[in-house]
Amino acid sequence: xxxxxxxxxxxxxxxxxxxxxxxxxxxxxxxxxxxxxxxx
Length: 40
Fold this sequence. Notes:
This protein is an all-alpha fold. The chain contains two helices and no strands. It is rod-shaped. The termini are far apart.
């Protein structure tokens, strides 16, 4: 496990988690817009 931590620094993990979180929020927002648009 120590060699994996050396290959991937903590900043890369933080950036990856932020990208995944932002991607999910963006996808949920688009899905919400489609749901609201389909009801009208």
